[in-house]
Amino acid sequence: MNSKVQELKVFLDHAGRVALVEVAATKGSTPREAGAFMLVSASAIFGTIGGGQLEYMAIDKARQILGSLRSAHSSEFADVGAAPHPPARPPQQLRSSCGGWIGTFSPYRDGEKGNGPNAGDPPSLREEGKGEGQRDADEAVVTLDVLLGPEIGQCCGGRVEVLIRLVDGTIEEQLIANAESEEAHLPHVYIFGGGHVGQALAASLALLPIHVVVVETRSEALEGMPETVETRLTPLPEAEVRNAPAGAAFAILTHDHALDFLIVAEALKRGDAAYVGMIGSKTKKATFRSWFLKSADGGEAEFARLVSPIGGDAVKDKRPSVIAALAAAEIMTALVIQRAVSNADHQDHQAGIMAG
Predict the structure, then answer these.
(1) Cα 345 to Cα 356: distance, rounded to the nearest angstrom
(2) Nearest to residue 176, comparing CAs of 39, 322, 318?
(3) Whole-structure pTM value
(4) Angstrom distance (rounded) from CA 63 to CA 69
(5) Phi and psi at residue 11, in whole multiples of 5°?
(6) What's the per-residue H, E or C state across the chain?
(7) How many CA atoms lie within 13 A of 290 on its CB side?
């Protein structure tokens, strides 16, 4: 299983000098929220702050900073005739217009449109001095304050403040620590069954910020799963339901209806499940209800939480990829709603503590 943390580490290990581009603040309608970030190297990027002209501007400025740093390194070695490779430590002065300055990026300057040498270009970066002299290269900071209007070809209508800084050892450690913490708290989605729909659903969910586990009794059904998906081969798949963390989602679509029933029954008896869905027809759901109430000690309230067929029945299309797309949206919606409810409950609890 390949995780996002591993992908981040690989990027940082191989990208060379990297700039961190982070959304520091937002106002109004914006592509991403404060805290969203991306990493930019001379030839690659990791992550996104929402795309569009905002992202292009941020990437361009980040690479200007990286280019200025490379130029500074080259100048330092030119005097001694050495090859222009970076020294063991970055130079103490960043010999460029970015070092030790904070810039403000705006589509208007002093109430008027930007008047750079190229009238059709996006407005240029206005830089203002901060303190005396220049900072160390690793402390170079640029802030882009971007109005998302027609002037830059992005009409969200809001405003975004983007902070750009060079990644040093401390920032790298913090990025990895944050990624590990985020990964540890991802909601879990369990897919029971690795058939055609299970494979398609795993591929759809692998793109989302969740931890996907595919559970199977057949080893061959687990072949070809996405690298970011965890696979578990077990003769007792229903036991995985009991061991799942609170707030997990369960999608049941095995090759055996009797096995489906056992797994669904276990999932419905967990009152903390965010989602319990079973593939099948109305007849299958009715058959399960009869068995669940008469033979599995289930109740009507528990049964009412079952989603079947998964993905709903509004779209009459039985192709695995279509069912998977609809089910993935359904599952993600349930997880987001549960997270919002949990956060609200936590805030109410904290308010109660403060009031007491």
Answers:
(1) 16
(2) 39
(3) 0.72
(4) 10
(5) -60, -50
(6) CCCHHHHHHHHHHHCCCCEEEEEEEEECCCCCCCCCEEEECCCCEEECCCCHHHHHHHHHHHHHHHHHHHHHHHHHHHCCCCCCCCCCCCCCCCCCCCCCEEEEECCEECCEECCCCCCCCCCCEEEEECCCCCCCHHHCEEEEEEECCHHHCCCCCCEEEEEEEECCHHHHHHHHHHHHHHHHCCCEEEEECCCHHHHHHHHHHCCCCCEEEEEECCHHHHCCCCCCCEEEECCCCHHHHHHCCCCCEEEECCCCHHHHHHHHHHHHCCCCCCEEEECCCHHHHHHHHHHHHHHCCCCHHHHCCEECCCCCCCCCCCCHHHHHHHHHHHHHHHHHHHHHHHHHHHHHHHHHHHHC
(7) 5
Place of tokens 């390194």: 73
282: which 2 tokens? 């109305």
Extract the tokens encoding 218: 């057949």
pLDDT, tens digit, 9 for 90 and up, residues 104-150: 333 323 333 333 333 333 333 333 333 333 344 445 688 888 888 77
